[in-house]
Amino acid sequence: MSTQDFESAKQRVFDLRTLLDQYSYEYYVKDAPSVADAEYDKLYHELAALEEKFPNLVSSDSPTQRIGGTILPGFEKVIHEAPMLSLGNAFDESDLIDFDRRIKKLTDKPFSYICELKIDGLAVSLKYEDGKLVRAATRGDGTVGENVTQNIRTVKSVPLRLKKPYSIEVRGECYMPKASFIKLNQEREENGEAIFANPRNAAAGGLRNLDPKETAKRNLNTFLYTIGDFGEMTAVSQEDALRQLDELGIRTNHDRRVFQTIEEVWAYTQEFQEKRTDLPYEIDGIVIKVNEFEVQEEVGFTVKAPRWAIAYKFPAEEAHTVIRDIEWSV
Ligand code: NAD
């Protein structure tokens, strides 16, 4: 490798970090992205590839080493006892085949995959004590989130009391249904207010509003998909855990499916790529998880994400929507 290669990589890494930091700020803090997710993802992967090629250029403040956003002032901070992680990404079938190979190198045990819709909202944590909702928080930067308990209480599908007096922490996605998003933007346009680029940003702005009455107007909803603290619960697999969440009265997404092979997983991603426009909420991909908890434990985590899960992201259809919506707003 020549010095010139290294110097030009260093400059490009610097430029990419500056750009990605700006985009993250607009997306996570302002809830108003200026570029489509696919564009962000492309630059992010260029940065990750350069850092892999030139490990000396990796630094702890790089966007590749961080999770999510910043905490808004005005909200009480909540420390997540178990960090709320991100997910690695896959963009095509060969990425999924590589994922399958990596897992099979890490375990000899037989296992299955569970596929879930990747709901395009923001991650939240709900804490129950003796069956009562005591706290809700955003993911924030993964370690520290915002206390949004009063806001989550306005989401009608979130049970304030579980069907069993368990002390558990459940995590999932808070989102805005497409119909509510269209209605909200129509109203905002009529009132001469800035419109939201997409339902995800409208949901984030609604949930992270200091006035819970404003949150209530957004008609937000949730799908819960993971357990942060099992409390009295025991489960052997993701499928088992989700079924038990259903029994507690917690809303989960029922389009999940279990498969034995990565080829079947790929077919499922393609099926929902077709169906996504018919769903009443936005999805931006499919999350694929090793189903059996024993195998998940063996496969483990990186600092940023579980090794036993990956998010397959749909191709850039949404890019057009976002760009069109932004143009439409000017
Ligand atoms: P991610 O969106 O790639 O995936 C992780 C998240 O998926 C989880 O945190 C969870 O919130 C969500 N999720 C939804 N359904 C799930 C399910 N069934 N099981 C598990 N998780 C589920 O990662 P991220 O860290 O939340 O966000 C990074 C992404 O945000 C980028 O890839 C990019 O697309 C977007 N982004 C866009 C901009 C922009 O300017 N357009 C800026 C920053 C980030």
Q: How are the SSEs ordered, and which strands pair?
A:
Layout: H1 3-29, H2 37-53, E1 77-79, E2 89-90, H3 93-106, E3 113-119, E4 122-129, E5 132-138, E6 144-146, H4 149-152, E7 168-175, H5 178-190, H6 199-207, H7 212-217, E8 221-229, H8 238-248, E9 257-259, H9 262-275, E10 283-290, H10 293-299, E11 309-313, H11 317-329
Parallel strand pairs: 2-11
Antiparallel strand pairs: 1-6, 3-9, 3-10, 4-5, 4-7, 7-8, 10-11
Helix pairs in contact: 1-2
The chain binds nicotinamide-adenine-dinucleotide.
What does this structure look like?
The chain is of the alpha+beta class and 330 residues long. Helix content is 41%, strand content 19%. It has helices at 3-29, 37-53, 93-106, 149-152, 178-190, 199-207, 212-217, 238-248, 262-275, 293-299, 317-329; strands at 77-79, 89-90, 113-119, 122-129, 132-138, 144-146, 168-175, 221-229, 257-259, 283-290, 309-313. The strands form 3 sheets. It has a 5-stranded mixed sheet. α1 (3-29) packs antiparallel against α2. Bound molecules: nicotinamide-adenine-dinucleotide (NAD).
The strand line-up of the biggest sheet is 2-11-10-3-9
What coarse outline follows from CA principal-axis ratios?
Answer: globular
Portion in strands: 15-25%
Number of alpha- plus pi-helical segments: 11
Count of extended strands:
11
> What is the string of helix and strand elements?
HHEEHEEEEHEHHHEHEHEHEH
Summed over residues and divided by their number, the pLDDT gives a mean of: 93
Provide the structure class. alpha+beta
Rg from Cα: 20 Å
Tell me which ligands are bound.
nicotinamide-adenine-dinucleotide
- Uncertain runs: 318-330
Query: Helicity range of the residues?
Result: 40-55%
Biggest sheet statistics:
5 strands, mixed
